[in-house]
Write a structure and sequence with these properties.
One of its GO terms (molecular function) is RNA binding. This is RRM domain-containing protein. Keywords: RNA-binding. The protein folds into 2 domains: about 110 residues, Alpha-Beta Plaits (2-Layer Sandwich), CATH 3.30.70.330; about 70 residues. Helices cover about 55% and strands about 15% of the residues. It contains 5 helices and 6 strands, in the order H-E-H-E-E-H-E-E-E-H-H. Helix 2 runs parallel beside helix 5. It is elongated and about 110 Å long.
């Protein structure tokens, strides 16, 4: 039995026995907010994975594992939620879910640490920000303090300041970056909508299945009760 089927079996068994959360198998991972997500479509980016998982809670960190040479996704990731309880929702609802023709495997991770290179990058960024904020004159860094106005010629206070070549280049770069981000966000939203529809469809199918199974159990119990009643009547007649 594979891991996906085993997790589904455990969840179904707990539902049948009405096991409380305190006695659930999830409690073993109550100190970890990390989950493993395997079977991811290779074309998904970190942003796409966030869209899928964020429906179960706020995400604090993500590590989409990529090939060191090509940079391509290996199809699995580690996600850290802000609230550990979100991991239970993710495991129970996404495990075994089919996403873009691939079956997801979602499971708890007891102990996980980001790779050393990612930790170093994060630490160096934080340290750089702290160092920059602490240096004298940091508030003026990158700003031109000298004025181009000539007091002898006077100053036209209503004229817009001339845009320097550096500022113009920066503005165009920011505009291009904003357009690219908007285009990417639109693409992510489209994918998110498709994923949401798939989740809704799966939940609806699951509800219908549970209703059918409940009706079947009820019918079997009623049939069994009728047989017992008929048996008692025959016994009395004899």
């Amino acid at each position: 039995m594979n891991v996906v089927a085993e997790i589904q079996r455990l969840n179904e068994r707990e539902l049948e026995l009405n096991v409380p959360l305190s006695g659930s198998w999830h409690q073993k991972y109550s100190e970890s907010a990390w989950v493993y997500v395997g079977g991811l479509p290779f074309e998904l980016s970190e942003g796409d994975v966030l869209c899928v998982l964020s429906q179960f809670g706020e995400i604090e960190d993500i590590h989409l594992v990529r090939d060191g040479k090509t940079g391509k996704s290996k199809g699995f990731a580690f996600i850290k939620f802000e609230d550990q309880r979100s991991t239970i929702l993710a495991v129970d609802n996404l495990n075994g879910f089919k996403l873009l023709d691939r079956v997801l495997r979602v499971d708890h991770v007891l102990k996980y640490k980001l790779p050393k290179e990612l930790q170093e990058d994060s630490d160096s960024e934080d340290e750089g920000e702290r160092k920059q904020r602490g240096l004298p004159g940091h508030a003026y860094e990158g700003k031109e303090l000298a004025s181009d106005f000539d007091l002898h010629k006077g100053v036209d206070v209503f004229a817009a300041p001339e845009e320097s070549h550096k500022e113009k280049k920066k503005r165009k770069r920011e505009e291009k970056k904003a357009k690219k981000a908007a285009k990417k966000m639109k693409k992510i939203e489209k994918k998110q909508q498709k994923i949401f529809e798939q989740v809704q469809k799966r939940r609806q199918e699951q509800r219908l299945k549970e209703e059918r199974e409940a009706a079947q159990r009820e019918e079997e119990e009623n049939g069994k009760a009728r047989k017992e009643k008929e048996g008692k009547i025959r016994a009395l007649e004899e």
